[in-house]
Amino acid sequence: MVVTKKISLETKGHCDIMDITHQVEQQVAETNVSNGTVTLFVAGSTAGISTIEFESGLLSDFEGLWERNVPRDITYAHDRRWGDGNGYSHCRASLLGASLVIPLSDKRLALGTWQQIVLVDFDNRPRLRQIIVQVMGE
Amino acid sequence: MVVTKKISLETKGHCDIMDITHQVEQQVAETNVSNGTVTLFVAGSTAGISTIEFESGLLSDFEGLWERNVPRDITYAHDRRWGDGNGYSHCRASLLGASLVIPLSDKRLALGTWQQIVLVDFDNRPRLRQIIVQVMGE
Amino acid sequence: MVVTKKISLETKGHCDIMDITHQVEQQVAETNVSNGTVTLFVAGSTAGISTIEFESGLLSDFEGLWERNVPRDITYAHDRRWGDGNGYSHCRASLLGASLVIPLSDKRLALGTWQQIVLVDFDNRPRLRQIIVQVMGE
């Protein structure tokens, strides 16, 4: 059985890290699938999906990681060409990845207690995001 | 239904970023699956798979990210031991990841308009790559 | 068909990189699935899963990558708040990712010859880890 659902989300951009665990769980609960996989995918090239312990200290630490390793304030060829100033957002998103797959077992996602599913919006402006939630199994 | 297909690709190595979106779409179109997941996986430990907006500015920016964060010109224990000079390629590939899963819905991949699927070949020489395209669903 | 299995693993923490290829292969062999996907997922927010050529040089190089890019010895807001000293572990794990999906074809995982599946435990102490191995297919 394959059920494809969608989460729509307004983000603030600028490394906005949004906990979508509850929304994913709700979408899964509405299906008749008990065992299988939940595939999450964000359409767009300036956002990514991962898991993190969702507490304010780590949100700031994770943003710091991106500022140090893929800085906003260096020159990007993308920006010279297109002028939209979000070359760093694209690079960060490609590194983090657009998809995440979580096993579902007896209607429960295999997450740890302090492990939340997050959308990270790296773009340099607020965005309306579509996250595909595809539940496949039996 | 499970259909396993393959894309063969000659790369130039040296952070060669190749757009495989069209080839993936073609392989998917040849199956009878309309809804499900498309799992991409590259066999080998010096290449990875991700998505990016495929335009020349970003290709150069993404390569810059790798040069800054996992430089070619520092000392790698792998190279001291095996002498093949591609320790940096292995490290980059392990960080980017070898797999990507994209939901398929009504025969369409859930990609954004400016979001292409890419193979990134980090090796220090041209390679012939095999990418598995596995389509599962109904 | 969906079969959900588990690997339990004692790690040493501190960027302990453990080859779980053989255990994954064994779990897969015990199922009746010949073609499909093997989804690996680590519950917890201080460990990740990837592939690497498992040789001692690269294990040390990969650890070096993490020390340079997400250093242990800078200040983390997580640590100021919770005092457990593993803010760097969380950040590394979120970047590497908690899941990996490998196609299975005629009972064989699509891995390259020098490509092993690894759990990377970034925590700052030994841990008992649970890795979900979910096999789905026919």
Task: Using the coordinates shown, work out and report the CATH topology of chain A.
Answer: Jelly Rolls
How big a fraction of the residues of chain A is strand? Answer: 35-45%
CATH class of chain A: Mainly Beta
> Unreliable runs of chain A, pLDDT <50, ≥5 residues?
none
The arrangement of helices and strands of chain A along the chain is EEHEEHHHEEEE
Q: How many beta-strand elements of chain A?
A: 8
* CATH architecture annotation of chain A: Sandwich
Q: Whole-number radius of gyration of chain A?
A: 16 Å
Q: How would you sum up this structure, described in words?
A:
3 copies of one chain form a homotrimer. Chain A has about 140 residues and is of the alpha+beta class. Chain A has a single domain, classed as YjbQ-like (Jelly Rolls, Sandwich). In chain A, about 30% of the residues lie in helices and about 40% in strands. Chain A contains 4 helices and 8 strands, in the order E-E-H-E-E-H-H-H-E-E-E-E. A 5-stranded antiparallel sheet of chain A has the order 1-8-3-5-6, with helices on one face. In chain A, strand 5 and strand 6 form a beta hairpin. The radius of gyration of chain A is 16 Å and the shape is elongated. The model of chain A has no long low-confidence stretch (mean pLDDT about 100). Chains A and C meet through strand 4, helix 2 and strand 5 of A and strand 3, helix 3, helix 4 and strand 8 of C.
